[in-house]
C-alpha cells in the first residue's frame, strides 16, 4: 500500500521571537514492512541548515534553528511510503514464556529488554497489572492476550480529546477511563510492562478514510499513536491500536518508536521570546492506489 | 602510655584542681626544644578513640608524620595558638567565605568553618591512596564509555542491564556522543574514610560535577597564614600542581583552539556552589556564566556580551546533566537549548560531558570489584564501602536482615536530596523501611557504615578527637588522572554519612601531604620567557554582569546620599536647639521623605505634628528590612548584587562590602538611640568612601568600570537634582542655613569655604553643586563622566550617527553647561516656573531615559524561553 503523506504544523507567536531551536521526529521509519521512498522537510522562515541523526532507538531526528526575528513557524514534512501487512502470526507462545526470557540471569536482547522498564510517563502501577491479568490468564498465548487487552481498552475507555492533556498521568487517565490515543497506548504499555513484558510506544499516521458516500476529508487529522507488544524472537514486535481496536496493518504508517511519548515527540522546540503561541496541525495520508473502504475512528 | 596521652579525667592533668598541674598553659616556648619532651598543653586532653584508626596516634605514640607538627604547635603555647586562630578566623570572616551563597529571603549564608589543626598524611601513605583513586577514576570512565557506547558490559551481564535501564539519569540523548578529547571523565572526586585498619575506603564517587576544590584552596590560604613557619618547615605538597593539571586538562579538551575561551557554567547565585564557582573562576581566569548568558547559533555556543555574541570553546559544567538542554531533554525548562547538539558536533567541549553523573549513584558501588576485574583484569585497589543492591533477591534479604547495621540509600543518587532521604529513613519505623524496599527493590541499596578515623580537632579549650571524612580530587591527565596532593577534610561528631553532601558535617580541615624532602614550588603564572600577547582589556563582559554592576553603582550612591541626609538630620535632632526652630528642617525632611527614608507626612509640616516624634520613628525606619527604600534594604541589595558579581569584585572591595553588610545593624542587645545610629552612619559613609577609593584607584577602565560608574553617576546626579529641588524650590525661612546644610550633605562645605570663606550666596553654591565641572559632587561633573563612558561603549559605527544614549548624555550636559548660575539671586528665581526649576525638572526626567536607553541597548536579554507545545492525538 503506497501513501503520500504531508504533515503541516504551524506556530504563530504573540510577539516576534529572536530565535527558535527545533528537533523533530517527522520522518517515516524504514523497516522490513515499510519502505520510505521520499522524505522532505521544509521550514518557513527557512533555517540556515537542517541536520539529522539517528536517536537511541534508531529513529531519524532532524535539527534546525531559525535565528532571524520571526513571528511564526511553519514545518511541513512530506513523504512517500510503501506499507506491507504484517506476516500472519505463526509462533504465539504463552506470555509467561516471554516474561521468563527477560528474567535476570538469562542472556537477553538489550534492544528489546530496554522496553520492559518503567519510563518517565509510564510508571509501574498495581491497578494496571490487575487490569492486564483479566486478559493475561495462565498460559494464554501472548498475541491472543494482547489483542484482547486492545479490545477491552477500546470498550472500557471513552475517547475524549478534552479530558486529558500531555501532563495527565497514566494513573489519572486510567482511573477516569478516558483519554486520547496517547493515553490508551500508555495504558496498554503500562499493563504489559507491569507483567514483565517488553512493550513500546509507536507514533505515526493513520490513513485518512472517507465516510461512506462523502469525499475524503483533507487535513483533518493529527499524528496518531499505538503500542507494540513483543511476541517472542520468532514473531517479534506486533503493533496493536487500542484507539481503533485493531491489529495494525497497511492503514498505519510508522514514524518512530520509543519507551513513551517523550522519546518520539513529533516536534520539540524552544522559542526565545515570542510570548504565548498558537499551534495548528494538519495531516494528510493519501493512498496512491484505490482500496476498499473500512470504518474506523480517527484519533 | 605516651607522654601526650593523658586522661582528661585524671586530676593530675586537670589545671583546675588545687594541686598545680605539672603542665602549665603558659610554659615558655623554650620548653618545646627537641631534647625535652614537648609540653603537651594543647594536646594534653587528647585521648584516642577506641576501635577506630586515630590519625594522630598509633599504638606506640604520636605518629611520625605528626611529631614535628605537634612539637611546633606546643611551642606556640595555648595563648599564641589561640591568637593566631582568632586572626585566621577574622580573615575567614573578611573573605565572606560561605558555602551556601546568597538566597532570597535568607539573611545569612551558612558560614564556612575551618578547623585550625590540619590533617597530616605522610607522602608514602598518600601515594597508596593516589594509586587507588587513579584506578577508580579510570574504571568509572571506562564504565561510562561502555554504557554510552557499545554496552558490552550490559550485553555480557557483568553489569545487569537493569542497573542502567532503570537509571533515571540514563538520558538516551547522551548515548553515542563524542566526548571532548575522548574522555567521559575530566574531573573526579571521591569521598573517603579511613577504616580501623588504616586503609582508605571510598564512601561515594563524584563524577557529575565534583565540587569542593575551591574550598580546599581557600582552606589552604587561611591555614598557611595561621601557621606560616610551621607550614613552610613541614614540606607540605603544594596544591598548585593540581590546578596546573586542571588548566592543562581544560586546554586539552578544547576543540581545535590555541587559546580557548573557557567558561564556568554556574547554577547562578542562588545555587549551592556559587561561591566556589566564582572563586575558581577568578583563580583560574575563566569567565563565570549562567545558562541565560549563553546562546546557540549554528550549533556553536555563544556568550552574550556587551560587544555582541562571542564563541565559547570550553564549558566547565556545574548543573546536573539533565538540566543543561531544554531542547533535547524536554522534561526540563532549564539550560541552553541546543547545547547537546553543539557538543555532538564538536564545536564546544562540555566537561564533564553530559551524562557523566550516571556512575556516581551508589548502585555502581555494588559492582565495582567485578567491573574492575572484567575491564582491567586486576583487583580494585581502593575498595568502596560494601554495598548490597536490593534488585538482587539474595542481596535484598541480606539488607532486610541487617537493617540495624546498614544504611539504606537510594540506588540512584538525586543530587542535593540525599541528606533529606537519609533523615527520612532514620525517622521512619523499621516496618516502613522494609515496606519501602519491598515495594520497589531496584531503587534501594544497603551500605555498610565505615567506622571513620579520628583526628585532632580544636575545641574552645583544647584539642580533642573527632571523626573525619575526606574528599579527594582528580583531574584527567593524558590517559590517566592527576590526584590533588591534599583534599577537603570534613569533621562531624555525629555519625552522619558525610559523603551525602558537601554541606554535611560541622567544619572542615586542610589536609597536608608531607613530603620527605623539599617540595616543588609551582605557580599558575606563566613561566617567564614565553611569548605573551599584551592585552588592554579583560575578558568580554557578559551582559548580565554589566547589569549587576550598573545596579550596584546606583545602590552604592543611593546609600551614600541617604546616609549623608540622615546624618545631617540626626546631628540637628541631637543638637542644643529644637529641630523645629532650625530653618533648614523642612528642606531636610522633604528630602528624606522624597528618598523614602521617612514617611511622606514628615515632609509636610501640618501632618508632621500628628505623627510620632522623629526621634523615635527614625531609627527603626532606617533598619526596616521590609521597606525596600529603607537604608538597610539598600545595604542588603548592595550585598546581594556584590554576591552575584563575586568573580568581578576584587577581594579588598569585597571585604569592605561584606563589612558594611555585617556591621550596619542595630546593636543586638540593650537600648539604642540616635547616637548609636549616628555612629553606624559615620562608619557606613566611611566604608562607602573606602570602596569608591578602591574602585577609582584599582579598577582598570574597561567595561566593568564603565557600567559600575555609569550607575553611580546617574544616581548621584539624580539625587543631587532632587536635593536641590527639595532645598531650593520655594524655600521657607533663612536661605543661608539651607544653603549650608546643602553644602554639608553634598560634602562640599570645605571647598566652598576655601573659595568664599563664610560668605554663603546662592550663585556661588549653585555653581559649586550644579555647574562646576571640577567638583566631583556637582551635577555637571557626573554628566561629563557619563558622556565619556557612553562614548567609550561599543557602538554600531557603520551608520555614523550618534546613538540614543549619546544624544541623551549630550543633551543633559549641554543644558547644564548653558545654565548661567549668576542669574539666580532673587527669591522669585526659585519659583517652580523659573528657569532653575525647569532645568532641574529636565535633568530629572532625562536621566531615567538615559538609564533605560543604556539598559535596552546593552543589558536586556532576549525574552524568556518557551517550549513549544504539541497537539496530541
From TrEMBL, chain A:
<dbReference type="Pfam" id="PF08379">
    <property type="entry name" value="Bact_transglu_N"/>
</dbReference>
<dbReference type="InterPro" id="IPR013589">
    <property type="entry name" value="Bac_transglu_N"/>
</dbReference>
<protein>
    <recommendedName>
        <fullName>Transglutaminase-like domain-containing protein</fullName>
    </recommendedName>
</protein>
<feature type="domain" description="Transglutaminase-like">
    <location>
        <begin position="173"/>
        <end position="244"/>
    </location>
</feature>
<dbReference type="Pfam" id="PF01841">
    <property type="entry name" value="Transglut_core"/>
</dbReference>
<dbReference type="InterPro" id="IPR038765">
    <property type="entry name" value="Papain-like_cys_pep_sf"/>
</dbReference>
<dbReference type="InterPro" id="IPR002931">
    <property type="entry name" value="Transglutaminase-like"/>
</dbReference>
Automatic annotation (TrEMBL), chain B:
<dbReference type="InterPro" id="IPR025841">
    <property type="entry name" value="CP_ATPgrasp_2"/>
</dbReference>
<feature type="region of interest" description="Disordered">
    <location>
        <begin position="1"/>
        <end position="42"/>
    </location>
</feature>
<feature type="domain" description="DUF403">
    <location>
        <begin position="541"/>
        <end position="859"/>
    </location>
</feature>
<dbReference type="InterPro" id="IPR007296">
    <property type="entry name" value="DUF403"/>
</dbReference>
<dbReference type="InterPro" id="IPR051680">
    <property type="entry name" value="ATP-dep_Glu-Cys_Ligase-2"/>
</dbReference>
<dbReference type="Pfam" id="PF14403">
    <property type="entry name" value="CP_ATPgrasp_2"/>
</dbReference>
<dbReference type="Pfam" id="PF04168">
    <property type="entry name" value="Alpha-E"/>
</dbReference>
<feature type="domain" description="Circularly permuted ATP-grasp type 2">
    <location>
        <begin position="118"/>
        <end position="492"/>
    </location>
</feature>
<protein>
    <submittedName>
        <fullName>Uncharacterized protein</fullName>
    </submittedName>
</protein>
Amino acid at each position: 500500500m503506497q501513501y503520500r503523506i504531508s504533515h503541516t504544523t504551524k506556530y504563530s507567536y504573540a510577539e516576534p521571537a529572536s530565535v527558535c531551536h527545533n528537533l523533530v521526529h517527522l520522518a517515516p521509519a524504514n523497516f522490513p514492512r515499510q519502505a520510505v521512498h521520499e522524505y522532505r522537510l521544509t521550514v518557513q522562515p527557512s533555517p540556515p541548515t537542517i541536520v539529522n541523526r539517528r536517536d537511541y532507538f534508531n529513529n531519524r531526528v532532524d535539527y534546525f534553528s531559525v535565528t532571524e526575528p520571526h513571528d511564526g513557524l511553519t514545518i511541513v514534512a512530506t513523504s512517500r511510503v510503501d506499507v506491507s501487512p504484517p506476516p500472519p502470526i505463526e509462533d504465539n507462545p504463552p506470555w509467561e514464556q516471554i516474561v521468563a526470557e527477560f528474567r535476570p540471569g538469562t542472556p537477553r536482547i538489550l534492544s528489546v529488554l530496554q522496553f520492559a522498564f518503567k519510563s518517565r510517563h509510564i510508571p509501574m502501577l498495581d491497578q494496571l497489572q490487575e487490569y492486564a491479568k483479566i486478559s493475561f490468564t495462565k498460559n494464554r498465548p501472548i498475541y491472543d492476550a494482547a489483542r484482547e487487552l486492545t479490545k477491552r481498552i477500546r470498550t472500557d475507555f471513552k475517547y475524549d480529546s478534552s479530558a486529558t492533556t500531555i501532563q495527565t498521568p497514566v494513573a489519572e487517565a486510567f482511573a477516569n477511563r478516558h483519554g486520547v490515543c496517547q493515553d490508551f497506548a500508555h495504558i496498554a504499555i503500562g499493563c504489559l510492562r507491569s507483567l514483565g513484558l517488553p512493550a513500546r510506544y509507536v507514533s505515526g499516521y493513520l490513513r485518512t478514510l472517507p465516510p461512506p458516500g462523502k469525499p475524503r476529508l483533507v487535513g483533518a487529522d493529527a499524528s496518531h499513536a499505538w503500542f507494540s507488544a513483543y511476541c517472542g524472537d520468532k514473531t517479534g514486535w506486533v503493533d496493536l491500536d487500542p484507539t481503533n481496536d485493531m491489529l495494525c496493518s497497511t492503514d498505519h504508517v510508522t514514524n518512530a518508536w520509543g519507551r513513551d511519548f517523550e522519546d518520539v515527540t513529533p516536534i520539540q522546540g524552544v522559542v526565545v521570546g515570542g510570548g504565548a503561541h498558537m499551534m495548528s496541525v494538519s495531516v494528510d495520508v493519501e493512498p496512491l492506489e484505490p482500496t476498499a473502504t473500512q470504518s474506523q475512528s480517527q484519533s | 602510655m605516651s607522654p601526650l596521652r593523658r586522661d582528661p579525667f585524671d586530676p593530675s592533668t586537670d589545671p583546675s584542681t588545687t594541686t598545680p598541674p605539672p603542665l602549665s598553659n603558659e610554659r615558655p616556648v623554650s620548653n618545646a626544644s627537641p631534647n625535652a619532651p614537648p609540653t603537651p598543653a594543647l594536646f594534653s586532653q587528647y585521648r584516642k578513640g577506641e576501635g577506630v584508626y586515630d590519625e594522630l596516634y598509633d599504638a606506640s605514640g604520636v605518629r611520625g608524620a605528626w611529631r614535628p607538627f605537634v612539637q611546633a604547635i606546643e611551642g606556640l603555647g595555648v595563648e599564641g595558638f589561640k591568637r593566631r586562630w582568632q586572626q585566621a578566623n577574622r580573615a575567614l570572616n573578611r573573605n565572606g567565605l560561605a558555602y551556601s551563597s546568597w538566597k532570597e529571603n535568607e539573611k545569612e549564608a551558612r558560614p564556612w568553618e575551618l578547623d585550625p589543626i590540619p590533617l597530616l598524611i605522610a607522602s608514602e601513605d598518600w601515594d597508596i591512596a593516589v594509586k587507588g583513586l587513579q584506578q577508580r577514576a579510570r574504571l568509572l570512565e571506562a564504565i561510562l564509555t561502555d554504557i554510552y557506547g557499545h554496552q558490552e558490559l550490559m550485553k555480557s551481564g557483568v553489569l545487569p542491564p537493569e542497573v542502567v535501564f532503570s537509571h533515571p539519569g540514563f538520558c538516551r540523548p547522551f548515548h553515542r556522543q563524542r566526548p571532548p578529547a575522548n574522555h567521559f571523565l575530566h574531573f573526579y572526586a571521591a569521598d573517603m574514610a579511613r577504616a580501623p585498619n588504616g586503609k582508605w575506603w571510598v564512601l561515594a564517587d563524584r563524577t557529575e560535577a565534583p565540587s569542593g576544590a575551591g574550598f580546599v584552596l581557600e582552606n589552604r590560604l587561611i591555614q598557611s597564614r595561621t601557621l606560616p613557619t610551621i607550614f613552610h618547615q613541614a614540606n607540605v605538597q603544594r596544591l598548585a600542581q593540581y590546578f596546573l593539571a586542571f588548566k592543562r586538562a581544560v586546554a586539552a579538551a578544547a576543540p581545535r583552539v590555541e587559546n580557548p575561551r573557557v567558561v564556568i557554567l554556574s547554577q547562578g547565585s542562588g545555587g549551592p556552589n556559587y561561591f566556589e564557582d566564582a572563586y575558581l573562576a577568578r583563580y583560574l581566569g575563566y569567565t563565570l556564566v549562567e545558562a541565560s548568558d549563553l546562546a546557540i547559533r549554528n550549533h556553536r555556543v555563544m556568550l552574550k556580551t556587551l560587544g555582541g555574541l562571542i564563541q565559547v570553546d570550553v564549558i566547565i559544567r556545574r548543573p546536573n546533566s539533565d538540566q543543561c538542554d531544554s531542547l533535547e531533554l524536554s522534561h526540563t525548562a532549564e539550560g541552553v537549548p541546543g547545547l547537546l547538539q553543539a557538543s555532538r558536533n564538536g564545536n564546544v567541549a562540555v566537561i564533564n560531558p553530559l551524562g557523566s553523573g550516571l556512575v556516581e549513584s551508589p548502585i555502581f558501588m555494588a559492582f565495582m570489584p567485578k567491573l574492575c576485574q572484567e575491564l582491567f583484569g586486576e583487583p580494585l585497589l581502593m575498595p568502596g564501602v560494601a554495598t548490597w543492591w536490593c534488585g538482587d533477591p539474595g542481596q535484598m534479604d541480606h539488607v532486610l536482615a541487617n537493617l540495624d547495621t546498614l544504611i539504606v540509600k537510594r540506588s540512584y543518587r538525586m543530587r542535593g536530596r540525599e541528606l533529606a532521604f537519609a533523615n527520612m529513613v532514620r525517622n521512619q519505623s523499621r516496618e516502613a523501611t522494609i515496606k519501602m524496599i519491598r515495594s520497589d527493590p531496584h531503587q534501594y541499596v544497603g551500605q555498610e557504615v565505615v567506622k571513620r578515623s579520628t583526628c585532632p580537632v580544636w575545641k574552645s579549650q583544647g584539642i580533642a578527637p573527632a571523626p573525619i571524612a575526606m574528599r579527594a580530587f582528580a583531574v584527567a591527565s593524558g590517559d590517566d588522572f592527576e590526584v590533588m596532593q591534599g583534599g577537603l577534610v570534613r569533621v562531624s561528631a555525629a555519625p552522619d554519612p558525610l559523603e551525602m553532601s558537601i554541606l554535611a558535617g560541622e567544619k572542615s580541615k586542610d589536609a597536608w601531604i608531607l613530603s620527605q624532602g623539599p617540595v616543588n614550588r609551582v605557580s599558575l603564572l606563566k613561566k617567564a620567557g614565553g611569548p605573551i600577547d599584551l592585552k588592554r582589556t579583560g575578558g568580554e563582559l557578559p551582559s548580565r554582569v554589566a547589569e549587576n554592576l550598573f545596579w550596584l553603582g546606583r545602590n552604592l550612591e543611593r546609600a551614600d546620599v541617604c546616609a549623608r541626609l540622615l546624618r545631617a538630620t540626626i546631628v540637628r535632632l541631637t543638637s542644643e536647639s529644637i529641630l523645629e526652630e532650625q530653618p533648614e528642617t523642612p528642606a531636610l525632611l522633604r528630602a528624606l521623605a522624597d528618598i523614602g527614608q521617612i514617611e511622606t507626612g514628615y515632609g509636610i509640616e501640618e501632618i508632621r505634628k500628628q505623627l510620632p516624634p522623629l526621634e523615635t520613628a527614625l531609627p527603626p525606619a532606617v533598619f526596616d528590612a521590609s521597606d525596600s527604600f529603607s537604608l538597610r534594604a539598600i545595604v542588603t541589595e548592595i550585598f546581594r548584587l556584590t554576591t552575584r558579581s563575586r568573580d568581578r569584585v576584587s577581594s579588598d572591595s569585597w571585604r569592605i562590602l561584606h563589612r558594611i553588610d555585617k556591621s550596619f545593624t542595630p546593636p543586638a542587645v540593650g537600648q539604642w538611640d540616635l547616637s548609636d545610629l549616628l555612629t553606624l552612619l559615620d562608619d557606613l559613609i566611611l566604608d562607602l568612601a573606602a570602596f569608591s577609593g578602591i574602585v577609582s584607584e584599582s579598577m582598570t577602565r574597561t567595561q566593568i568600570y564603565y557600567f559600575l560608574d555609569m550607575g553611580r553617576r546617574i544616581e548621584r546626579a539624580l539625587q543631587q537634582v532632587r536635593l536641590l529641588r527639595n532645598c531650593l524650590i520655594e524655600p521657607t525661612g533663612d536661605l543661608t542655613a539651607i544653603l549650608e546644610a546643602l553644602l554639608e550633605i553634598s560634602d562640599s562645605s570645605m571647598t566652598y569655604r576655601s573659595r568664599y570663606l563664610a560668605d554663603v550666596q546662592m550663585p556661588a553654591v549653585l555653581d559649586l553643586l550644579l555647574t562646576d565641572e571640577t567638583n566631583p559632587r556637582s551635577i555637571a561633573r557626573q554628566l561629563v563622566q557619563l558622556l565619556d563612558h557612553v562614548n567609550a561603549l561599543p557602538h554600531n559605527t557603520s551608520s555614523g550617527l550618534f546613538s540614543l544614549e549619546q544624544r541623551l548624555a549630550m543633551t543633559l550636559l549641554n543644558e547644564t553647561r548653558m545654565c548661567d548660575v549668576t542669574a539666580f539671586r532673587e527669591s522669585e528665581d526659585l519659583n517652580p516656573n523659573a528657569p532653575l526649576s525647569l532645568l532641574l525638572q529636565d535633568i530629572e526626567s532625562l536621566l531615567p531615559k538615559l538609564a533605560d536607553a543604556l539598559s535596552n541597548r546593552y543589558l536586556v536579554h532576549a525574552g524568556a524561553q518557551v517550549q513549544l507545545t504539541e497537539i496530541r492525538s
